Amino acid sequence: MNAKNRIAALIVAAGRGMRAGGGMPKQYRQVAGRTVLSRTLSAFTAHPSIDTVTVVIHPDDRKLYDRSAGTSSKMRPPVNGGDSRAASVLNGIRSLSGDTSPDIVLIHDAARPMIGAEIIDRVVTALHDTDGAVAMLPAIDAMRMVNEDGTLGQNVPRDGTSRAQTPQGFHFAPLLAAFEAATTGGSLDTHLDDAAVAMSAGMAVMAVTGDPLNFKLTTPEDFSMAERLLAQPDIRNGQGYDVHAFCEGDTVTLCGITIPHDKGLKGHSDADVGLHTLTDAILGAAAAGDIGRHFPPSDPQWKGADSAIFLTRAVEIITEMGFALSNVDITLICERPKIGPHSEAMRARVGELCGLEIDRVSVKATTTERLGFCGREEGIAALASATLIKIAP
């Protein structure tokens, strides 16, 4: 095999696949917003080694196929399948034969939508030195027979056993000859997979490493797993901004740490501008209002309150909504007091209140170069951002 060889992908999608539920063949069901077949086709049309992609379909499924096929220039017209998987593969292989026959064909189950480019690479590379190559996974669990009544039977030795996946790749001409010979001899449907047909004709087939994620969607549980793996994470960002003026006093509380200063901060609570703005950022990320809505300054119970109460309640609210905090970032804007000597203690306190490791908490400071109210040391401003991630149910 050399770099000029043409490689065709043959996607087998002619089965009924009703065991998975959903009221339609499983290859046309949606997983995380796209059909199974669409995801499978994208993996092959996007791969640089693949020249053409052909899908073998059930004759009744043409409209369903058309909605999933996409517009890639690599796509060839679909081919109708046969009465069995082997017969469908044979129809697909025959459709590739002719003046533009490929040198290599990769046969893949449509119901394996999480096929990775690395597996395709491994199969193609192996075909430099062998007639065929199959993605395989070693059996790692204990293997036992199960009796008809559900009781366990004898052990099946797992040493040397592996699970076959697809794609299964072959040099095209000898594979077509192997399928035709099996058809003529009446043994086509007795073979477990394409590799078995190839091996029955004397082709050497090598194993390459598969991928656990390249599992075949067969049951409702498989679809649930694929949905969880393929669903886009719900990540939300929020930002907060707050200002508190200086007043008479000898300490300020910033990000939960009390710092000696020649002034205090004015506010209905303890005026911790850092925690206030972070509370707003967290609530904002979840579209859950703001600090004023949950803790109105007109309510006397919050007079002089520790702002840690506000922040911990915001974390409780987003937790009840099914979110988890990923990281937070706070910027304090002031000329004085100097934040640097206290930033690590602030990070630790914020992390404690938010339930975060300290490496997910940032507290930093800047000045306004003596400009504006902060530059005139009339008060302190703060900016904060928070990132939330929706926790899978």
Any overview of this molecule?
By secondary structure, the chain is an alpha/beta fold. The protein folds into 2 domains: 7-230, Spore Coat Polysaccharide Biosynthesis Protein SpsA, Chain A (Alpha-Beta Complex), CATH 3.90.550; 235-390, 2-C-methyl-D-erythritol 2,4-cyclodiphosphate synthase (60s Ribosomal Protein L30, Chain: A). 30% of the residues lie in helices and 27% in strands. β8 (144-146) and β9 form a beta hairpin. The model has no long low-confidence stretch (mean pLDDT 94).
Number of strands: 18
Contiguous uncertain segments of 5+ residues: none
The coarse silhouette is elongated
Structural class: alpha/beta
CA gyration radius, whole angstroms: 32 Å
Query: What order do the SSEs take from the amino end to the carboxyl end, as H and E?
Result: EEEHEHEHEHEEEEHHEHEEEEHHHEHEHE
Strand content: 25-35%
Strand order of the largest sheet: 5-4-1-6-10-7-11
In the CATH hierarchy, what is the class of the largest domain?
Alpha Beta
CATH superfamily of the largest domain: Spore Coat Polysaccharide Biosynthesis Protein SpsA, Chain A
Number of domains: 2
- Mean pLDDT over all positions: 94
Straight-line N-to-C gap: 49 Å
CATH topology of the largest domain: Spore Coat Polysaccharide Biosynthesis Protein SpsA, Chain A
Outline the fold blueprint.
Blueprint: E1 7-13, E2 30-31, E3 34-35, H1 36-45, E4 52-57, H2 62-68, E5 79-80, H3 85-96, E6 104-109, H4 117-126, E7 132-138, E8 144-146, E9 152-155, E10 162-171, H5 172-184, H6 194-200, E11 205-209, H7 220-230, E12 235-247, E13 251-254, E14 257-260, E15 264-265, H8 273-285, H9 291-294, H10 308-320, E16 323-333, H11 343-354, E17 361-366, H12 372-375, E18 379-390
Parallel strand pairs: 1-4, 1-6, 4-5, 7-11, 16-17
Antiparallel strand pairs: 2-3, 6-10, 7-10, 8-9, 12-15, 12-18, 13-14, 16-18
